[in-house]
Specification:
Radius of gyration of chain B: 12 Å
Number of strands of chain A: 10
Number of domains of chain B: 1
Shape of chain A: globular
Order of helices and strands of chain B: EEEEEHHH
Helix content of chain A: 25-40%
Low-confidence stretches of chain B: none
Distance between the termini of chain B: 34 Å
Strand order of the largest sheet of chain A: 3-4-5-9-8-7-6-10
Largest sheet of chain A: 8 strands, mixed
Largest sheet of chain B: 5 strands, antiparallel
Strand content of chain B: 25-35%
Oligomer: heterodimer
Structural class of chain A: alpha+beta
Radius of gyration of chain A: 27 Å
Mean pLDDT of chain A: 57
Shape of chain B: globular
Structural class of chain B: alpha+beta
Mean pLDDT of chain B: 90
Helix content of chain B: 25-40%
Chain lengths: ~290, ~90
């Protein structure tokens, strides 16, 4: 049974997906899928539907005769609404010969990008938009840095790539250079502590200082620990350990960066790892950024 | 009875850090020791590596001391540990 007053869900979700993927997509997907529907009938277009534009299957007319594909797509929309475990896809049986069924949902859409938004399919109108919008914020927030960390990059005399992170934690060190080579060693040898993503850097070390910053988590953790550590512990002569208790491993041990003064107040990251606090601190900060 | 263990040794010349690794364990725990030694332990509590900060600066003049540290921690013959240290010092020059 076709639901004539299905909520206008597709236009919104698809537009959002299109933005997310950086692709241009129509507000209606009906022309994009190789829909295998077989029914035909009359569909009354609800006045508030926005999932079809003029020229699409549902555009332009209050009531229009739909072709087979069009009805199938409406049916798909219905499935989309009643079975929100999947997106606005075209469904066939796994063998590819059947019609749309709820039981055998297999997406055969050529360009299906709707999976991530299917869970909101049963909602409509303002509530849907609000939920999509907030969800979009959450999705993009994952990729966005938690806090701005000012860095610059450069190349050493020997051609090594590095980034420079400024810090005001202790007067002895005002900037720390993080060399791609060092980052690679850390990734290779301490990578198990940091997870597979960090090990990946080890394979690319020496390529580009920006590659360090493209790391979604460790780049920011290390840069943030340099810029505003929560503790500074003494190291070997001329070295300091920048400790950030807000970045921890699963055991709750804080991230430690060993930084050695190289010239003046310029330091160099030697290595980093997670380890328990030593108890002896050169400086401590109650909150990040207060050091 | 001391046993024989093979090590993978890499040196970060710019940072003067030597990484000695017998094996990789996804649940590695690090324990900081003296003189820039950071011991790595596997999930079973066995030592699986050591990171030596300021390797040349601190240990180039006394490789025997470092060899003794490695031998006792990894339970390997002191001669093998000395071999590792001397090779690392050679390679880091």
């Amino acid at each position: 049974m076709i639901r004539p007053h299905a909520r206008p869900v597709l236009s919104w979700s698809l537009r959002l997906v299109g933005e997310r993927n950086g692709a241009t997509r129509p507000s209606s997907r009906y022309g994009d899928t190789d829909c295998a529907g077989t029914e035909s009938g009359t569909y009354r277009r609800p006045a508030k539907h926005t999932f079809a534009r003029a020229g699409d299957f549902f555009g332009g007319s209050r009531s229009l005769r739909l072709g087979r594909a069009g009805v199938a797509c409406v049916k798909r929309l219905q499935y989309h609404i009643t079975a929100p475990s999947h997106g606005s896809c075209c469904y066939r049986r796994p063998d590819g010969t059947g019609q749309h069924t709820v039981a055998n949902r297999v997406c055969v859409a050529k360009r299906c990008h709707s999976k991530g938004f299917s869970f909101v399919a049963a909602r409509g109108g303002r509530g849907l938009r609000e939920r999509l919008w907030s969800d979009r914020d959450r999705l993009f927030a994952r990729a966005a840095p938690k806090k701005e960390v000012t860095v610059s990059s450069g190349t050493g005399a020997g051609g090594e790539s590095f980034i420079v992170v400024s810090t005001t934690a202790i007067p002895q060190i005002t900037e720390v250079r993080v060399y791609a080579e060092t980052f690679g060693h850390i990734g290779q040898r301490h990578g198990a502590q940091f997870g597979s993503a960090f090990t990946h850097v080890g394979e690319n070390h020496g390529a580009d200082p920006g590659s360090i910053l493209r790391m979604p988590s460790m780049d920011h953790a290390i840069a943030s620990a340099i810029e505003s550590p929560t503790h500074i512990e003494p190291g070997n002569p001329g070295s300091y350990k920048f400790v950030d208790t807000t970045s921890t491993n699963v055991e709750g041990e804080p991230l430690k960066l060993v930084v050695k003064t190289v010239s003046g107040t310029s330091g160099r990251l030697q290595t980093s790892y997670f380890a328990p606090l030593s108890g002896s601190a050169v400086a401590t900060s109650g909150g990040k950024g207060d050091a | 009875m001391p046993r024989s263990v093979s090590f993978n040794v890499t040196y970060d010349a710019g940072g003067d850090v030597l990484y000695v690794t017998s094996r990789i364990d996804p649940k590695t725990r690090m324990v900081e020791g003296d003189y820039g030694l950071v011991w790595r332990y596997g999930s079973g509590g066995d030592p699986i590596g050591v990171t030596i900060v300021d390797f040349r600066e601190i240990w180039s003049g006394r490789p025997d001391d470092l060899a003794r540290e490695l031998a006792s921690r990894f339970d390997i013959p002191e001669l093998q540990a000395l071999n590792v240290v001397e090779h690392a010092l050679e390679a880091s020059q």
